[in-house]
Task: structure prediction
Amino acid sequence: MRKPVIAGNWKMNKTVEESRSLVYDLSIGLRDIKGVEKVLLPPYLSILTAAALLEGTDIGLGAQNLHWEEKGAFTGEISAQMIAEFCQYVLIGHSERRTYFGESDETVNKKIFSAIAHNLIPIVCVGETLGEKETGQTGEVLVRQILNGLKDVTKEYVSAIIIAYEPVWAIGTGKASSAEDARNVIRDIIRPVLQEMYGVQAANSTRVLYGGSVTAANASGFFVHEDIDGALVGGASLKADEFVKITQAGAG
Ligand code: 13P
Result:
């Protein structure tokens, strides 16, 4: 059985003071929801405040990015070692990082190794653009992102990794994928690649989330499909009541 995960990617939103208030509201709203892994991914600066407020709760914390080197002359960067002092998770290869900051499957791969070395659970994002979808390249793109992103990651670590299928055309557009299409991509493309790389058992124990315009109104439609193990939520994770409702839907 794969435990569902609902993760909120706050992106570049919320000051420390605003984060304090949102984390406080979430800590109350999410308190009694069981059977689902709850993860908040605030901006770096809010992580310490969030960690203090979440101490003793079952709400996990993660960063939105990391640098693969441990330390050194990399101005402006944050390493897995630093993140691991406060967090259990780290987002890797979000499409916004790939599009605006030149991240590639190769850098994704280095980041996964660094995260694993520091016992962080990587949430690895994959997804096709609208152009790729329209030209029938979805399968090819996802297979390439997974094969190269997870290159040399061994079987013992793969089920600790969470994959997030986020079609780029669905992110922040209000146009979510249909639940059936997301299920089909996960069932017919993503899990088979994992199976090819790691065998049936490892592929079946790896969690695969959907992300892209998930809201309280559409969330439960995704979670009825057993191949969809939860959601990576952007905009709707900035409102406590919305995120609580999505998490409730994830808990079933
Ligand atoms: P939205 O939920 O705002 O579409 O963002 C999805 C996302 O990118 C989460 O990582």
Notes: Strands lie at 5-9, 37-41, 59-63, 89-92, 121-126, 162-165, 207-211, 230-233. The mean pLDDT is 97. The radius of gyration is 17 Å. The domain at 5-9+14-251 is CATH 3.20.20.70 (TIM Barrel).
